[in-house]
Amino acid sequence: MSSKPPAAPSVTSAVDFSALDPASLPPVLVEHARLVWADRVRTEYQSIQVVGRFLIEALAAGEPLDVTQRVSETIEEEIRHAALCQQMCAALGGKVPTPKEVAAPLDDLHEVPVEERVLATAISLFLVAETFSVGYLEDLWARASHPVTKAVLEAIVGDEAEHEAFGPELVERKLREAPAAKRAGWKTFTQRLVRAHLDRAEKSLAQVPAEARVLARWPEEERAVLGLLGKERLALLCQRTYAERLEPTLVRLGLG
C-alpha cells in the first residue's frame, strides 16, 4: 500500500471540485456515489456530536489538558470532514444534507458515572471505530483514480490516522486507572463492539466461497473512481483491519 497521506492543514478545503464532471461518468455510478457521500455527511456530522460531548465529559472528569487539546482538534477535523463530504455531494450534483437533517439525538447518559462515559467513548470511537475507519479509508485513498476523490480522501484519512493513534494511548491509561474488578467488563464491552463489525462482515461474505475471499478478487476499479466500496470488499477490509491492526492492539491492552 502507498505511504499514508499527510493530515489536512485547515478547515478550508483546497480541493478543486470543479474538476469533477459527473456527466463524464456512468450515471448509475454517480447516483450511487451521491447516496454514499450524503450518508458520509451524516456520519461525519454525528461524529462531531459524539466528540463534542466527549470533550465536555473529559473536562468534567478532569482529564489532562493534552487530552482536552487533542479532542478539541478532533472536533475541528470532523467539521472539516463533514464540509468535504458536503462539497463532494454538491460536486456530484446530489442533494446536500443539512446539519438539521442529519443531527441525531444523543443518548441520555447522566446516570452513568462520567469516568465510565469517558472510557466507553475512548474505546468505542477512538479505538474501535477509528481503527476500522482508517482501514477502509486508506484502501480507498490508495486506489482512488480521480484526482478530486483522491484529494478528498487524502484530507480525511490523514486526520483519521492521527485519531487512530490517540485512541490506544488514552484507553491504556484509563484502563490502568480503572478498578481491576471492572477490567473484565470493559473487555466484554469491547469484544461486543468488535463482534458487531465482524458479524456484519461475515454476513456479507456468507455466499462468497473461500477461494474468493481475497481482496484481489474484488478490485472494484470503477467504484474506486468516486470513493465507493462494494459489500464484499468492505467485508474483507473489515476482517483484514481487525487481524492486522485492531486485534494486536486489543491483545496488548488486555481487551482482546
UniProtKB/TrEMBL annotation:
Gene3D superfamilies for the chain: 1.20.1260.10
A Pfam family = AurF
Q: Where is the signal peptide?
A: none
- Highest taxon of the source? Bacteria
User: What's the name of the protein?
Assistant: Ferritin-like domain-containing protein
Organism taxonomic ancestry: Bacteria, Pseudomonadati, Myxococcota, Polyangia, Polyangiales
